[in-house]
Every structure is written in C-alpha cells, then in structure tokens.
Amino acid sequence: MSTIKGFSEETGISPYTLRYYEREGILLGVKRDPSGNRLYDEESLEWLNFILSLRMTGMPLSEIKQYVDLYKEGESTLRKRKQMMLDHKGKVEKNVAETLKYLETINYKLALYDFQEKGFTKMLP
Amino acid sequence: MSTIKGFSEETGISPYTLRYYEREGILLGVKRDPSGNRLYDEESLEWLNFILSLRMTGMPLSEIKQYVDLYKEGESTLRKRKQMMLDHKGKVEKNVAETLKYLETINYKLALYDFQEKGFTKMLP
DNA sequence: AAATACCTTACAGTATACTCTAATCCACGC
DNA sequence: GCGTGGATTAGAGTATACTGTAAGGTATTT
C-alpha cells in the first residue's frame, strides 16, 4: 500500500501521469484512504505493468482504453480482448522486424565510417 | 528525376512532410527546375532513406538535424558523426531488447487466455 | 496554532511531428 | 488568352501524451 509519491518512485511513472492514466480510465484498482488520497497496491501495480507493456510497445492510449473498457464489461468480451492482444503482438513483431532492417542501414553507415578511417577519404553522408 | 508528387508516391512520404523535412534542413539534395518546382533524384532518395532509417528507429528530428548540420560542416566532423551513429545504434538495440521483454508480458497474457478457453474461468485482466 | 509537506481537483500549457489552409504563381491544352 | 492542375510560400491547426499550475484540503511536526 503506497501513496502516489511512493508508487511513482517505485515505478518510475510521474504522479502527473499516474493521475492522468486513472482519469482517462486506463489505470484500474487505485484505492483511496479516508481523506481521499490515492493508495496503490498489488492490484494497481499489476495493472500499471500491463498498461506499460502495451504502451511501451507502441499501443496508443485510446486503444488501451478500449481494452480496459472491454475488461470492465466482463467475461463476455474475452474473445475480443484476446484478439486485440493477438493483433497487437503481430504489430509489435512486425515493428521489431522493421526496426532491425533499419538498423542494418545504420550498421552499413558505420561500416563506411570504419572504412574511411582506414585512409579512404571520399566524403560520405 | 521526379516531381514532389511522384517522389511522394515512390517513397510513401507525403508532400507536406517532404517540404517540412527540407524546410527543417534535414533533407538535402533537393534540386529545382527552372520555374522553382522541386526535383528529386537519386541523391535526395539516398538522403531520405537514411533519414527514415534514423527516424523510424526513434531518433528525434532535432538530433537528425544535428547530424545533417555536422555533415554540412565537412570532414572535420567525421568522428562526431560516427559517434552519433554508434550511440544511436546502442539505443536502438537497447530499445529492441526492452520491447522483446514487454512482448513476453503480452505473450504471457495470451497464454492465460488460452488457458481460460480450456475451461478455467476465473476472470483475468 | 503555525509551518511543512504532502495531497486533491480542474484546467491550462508544452513538445513533437506532422498536416493543412490561403494566397499566389506557372505551364500546358484548347 | 484562359481555365485547369499542379506547384510554390508562410503560417496556422491538429493529435497525442503528457506536464505543470492554481487554489485549496489534510495531517503531522514543532
């Protein structure tokens, strides 16, 4: 059970962002103490970690919100949610493959620099 | 030698963005015809591809601009430019590793869905 | 009880990277 | 020679995801 400051420090997510996520309805499981202050526990930590794994792999907040809304509707949305995860997994894998392709271009550029350092001095990008 | 429309279609980058990149000084090698219209050739294509490989791997335009400015200064900046590429390569590789870690979380979630489909029906995120 | 340190809310501001609008210009076909 | 379709420019607008501010509340410490 941590306060917003503690939870922010534990997770590396700023209090602003934590409140923002909650306001937008994508961070569930946040409790309150008697005076209205936020309390974060294991449940909110799990949610946050899940949200972060979607966010950090490029899912926009609007789509994460859709997922969370489906979750709140209950078991009847299980299939849809699974499909969302499958689609997202596909996109992430495609994106990683693409990134690795672009990385090759960067490596090629680095090879040119090495080549140039060995005395070959034509100017290159 | 293509006009902005043709080049846009060839590369998939909108005319707006092509002009924007040029205005910001990150797309070099764009020529003009006698009446002032842009002409794109092999040189501009090479630049664009290079820029895109940086952009698509997450380098902000401001940093790409820095690189291009160094390039324009000539050979004296070779070492700096190489270092920028090395740093970026490191970041991209780190980011890919991180993404794959987050992908595992997503795969775990998918495994839970599979598990649930086989009759186990506790509600899960 | 005053100071402090944190919290709350609503809402405004910022950063990045486009994306579009408005006004104008230019070349080709009829 | 005039309309049509493209081009040009400067500058405004948009989207997303935060990030910060203002005004005030609460609780502990001195």
UniProtKB/TrEMBL annotation, chains A, B:
GO molecular function ontology, one term from the record: DNA binding
Residues in HTH merR-type domain copies: 1-70
PROSITE patterns: HTH_MERR_2
The organism's place on the tree of life at top rank: Bacteria
Keywords associated with the record: DNA-binding
Descriptive protein name: MerR family transcriptional regulator
Organism ancestry: Bacteria, Bacillati, Bacillota, Bacilli, Bacillales
